[in-house]
Amino acid sequence: xxxxxxxxxxxxxxxxxxxxxxxxxxxxxxxxxxxxxxxxxxxxxxxxxxxxxxxxxxxxxxxxxxxxxxxxxxxxxxxxxxxxxxxxxxxxxxxxxxxxxxxxxxxxxxxxxxxxxxxxxxxxxxxxxxxxxxxxxxxxxxxxxxxxxxxxxxxxxxxxxxxxxxxxxxxxxxxxxxxxxxxxxxxxxxxxxxxxxxxxxxxxxxxxxxxxxxxxxxxxxxxxxxxxxxxxxxxxxxxxxxxxxxxxxxxxxxxxxxxxxxxxxxxxxxxxxxxxxxxxxx
Length: 282
Ligand code: C2E
Ligand code: MG
Ligand code: MG
Ligand code: MG
Prior knowledge:
The chain is of the alpha/beta class.
């Protein structure tokens, strides 16, 4: 490997291979140092109680200044490099710090955890360690489990999530309805809430099949006594539909984007994104 990475510029039959390896290695090292030195930001997007239009909690979303298009690629890379667990914990650390800042009040926060961070005990042990001093604080934390990388051992993951829930931390299935594993998760993981994937929410006004799917998901959640949250709400029309269907909470650009500071006061008239406009996430 060492030899391949040497930037000697010599003609080399393996140049294509070594170039891509080099690129990967450089990114991996850069990413490793970003995680280690905490050189990333966390932004906060409000989750709103739809009936009262009040901010219920915030979702913490990772932001890398080098990447304006949202963290999805970096998260995927972290999963591939086996760095996601330390990254998710580094995010948790920043979020807890923000919750403990002077004048923060009783902020409730949701943090994302990759399925692969539930593959061993470390994430849960560390999160419990970080919150050991404050049982009340745990009650203000929500962990959103994403399906980005599938849970290899779902029973073991459920035991780990149960350890969180015993302490008052809430658990939510994220992006429900987007992937093949959603219903398997719902069957096998004991959780408090389901966040319905934006692909079922965004075009609710026009997508009748999507609306039927969403109606069924809401029914199912109601019968399981789970809270429902909708993501990617961009229009008032969608809010009306969601309320009619019985969805309790929502998040989206209509209410506010992820911002450096959690703002409990919603902007009275958030600009509604025009249909068809192309915008980066965030
Ligand atoms: P997610 O957990 O489903 O987060 C919601 C995503 O939807 C965010 O993208 C948010 O900016 C975007 N979004 C919010 N409202 C709207 C809207 O009205 N319209 C549209 N089009 N998009 C909206 P973001 O920040 O790019 O994050 C992408 C994903 O990266 C997240 O999806 C989450 O799965 C993952 N992620 C973010 N932070 C972390 C983290 O700390 N750890 C892990 N494991 N994953 C993270
Ligand atoms: Mg999430
Ligand atoms: Mg989500
Ligand atoms: Mg999503």
